[in-house]
Specification:
By secondary structure, this protein is of the alpha/beta class. 34% of the residues lie in helices and 24% in strands. The protein is built from ten helices and eleven strands. It is globular, with a radius of gyration of 19 Å. It holds the Pfam family SBP_bac_11. InterPro entries: ModA/WtpA (IPR050682). Keywords: Signal.
Length: 270
């Protein structure tokens, strides 16, 4: 039974019913390697898609960057079987020469800003301005960020731009692999943490404070592309199209992502 609070899922399922999927004799199982930035949205997108298409999704989550075994670059390097992948656009740019993807199927899906959170019930520091954010980070005993795209920016650029890199030495926690920064916050391993808004908003035990101030914000674009070696190419292409549909846009927005409205720039970059 679907609860009233999941009304958007009912609506999106109805909208998905308007889409056309290939009628297969046997339902397909799509193996998807995906960034955790879409995890919250996929909690609703997956059942809506599966109900409408009859296919199923086997999603393996991981950060778009990093050297951990769960990271998308490492999975591609080790030729993990997949039908399609969803990752930060800059990661796909780096992986394009590998030949692992059919770049003609590349499609921009959503933009994701970086947000700030604290453990549930803790004091809510002001992070609405650059000065306030700087003070909040300096005042924390431990600052968490991810190994993925947002974490690379935070570690290599944000701290330097704020002028607090030296002050934070020994006070940071880089959350490894597919684990979310919010999970570390919920366990009390850090006082404040930064990650994609869409990841912080769906993690239990976290109070989401808001996005980074626009002056120091980094928005990551996430895109989907079909694997070059897959027996499910038709179904995988249809799923990528589904991610760009009005039904998917609604749920992407609710999870904290910003759907790409104009996806006319599809295929390999020129």
């Amino acid at each position: 039974m679907i609860k009233t609070r999941n009304t958007p899922l009912l609506l999106s399922t109805s909208l998905v019913g308007l889409l056309t999927f290939s009628q297969l004799v046997d339902a397909a199982e799509l193996k998807v390697i995906a960034s955790g930035a879409l995890k919250g949205a996929m909690a609703h997108l997956q059942p809506a898609y599966e109900k409408a298409s009859g296919n199923t999704l086997a999603i393996s989550w991981g950060p778009s960057m990093g050297e951990s075994p769960e990271s998308i670059p490492q999975r591609i390097k080790h030729h993990e079987p997949m039908d399609l992948a969803i990752m930060a656009s800059e990661t796909l740019d780096l992986l394009a020469p590998s030949g692992a993807f059919d770049l003609t199927t590349r499609r921009d899906i959503a933009d994701s800003p970086i947000g700030v959170g604290v453990p549930h019930g803790h004091a809510h520091p002001d992070i609405s301005t650059v000065a306030a954010l700087k003070a909040a980070l300096r005042g924390a005993d431990k600052v968490a960020y991810s190994q993925g795209a947002s974490g690379v920016f935070i570690r290599s650029e944000l701290f330097q731009r704020l002028g607090i890199a030296e002050q934070l030495k020994g006070k940071t926690l880089e959350v490894q692999g597919k684990e979310l920064v919010g999970t570390a916050l919920a366990r009390g391993e850090a006082d404040i943490g930064m990650q994609q808004v869409s990841e912080l908003k769906v993690t239990p035990g976290v109070d989401y404070l808001g996005p980074l101030p626009k002056e120091v914000q980094k928005v990551s674009r996430f895109c989907a592309t079909v694997a070059s070696q897959t027996s499910n190419a038709v179904v995988a292409r249809e799923f990528v199209q589904f991610l760009a549909s009005p039904a998917a846009h609604q749920l992407l927005t609710e999870s904290g992502l910003e759907p790409v409205q104009n996806s006319s720039n599809q295929g390999a970059k020129q």
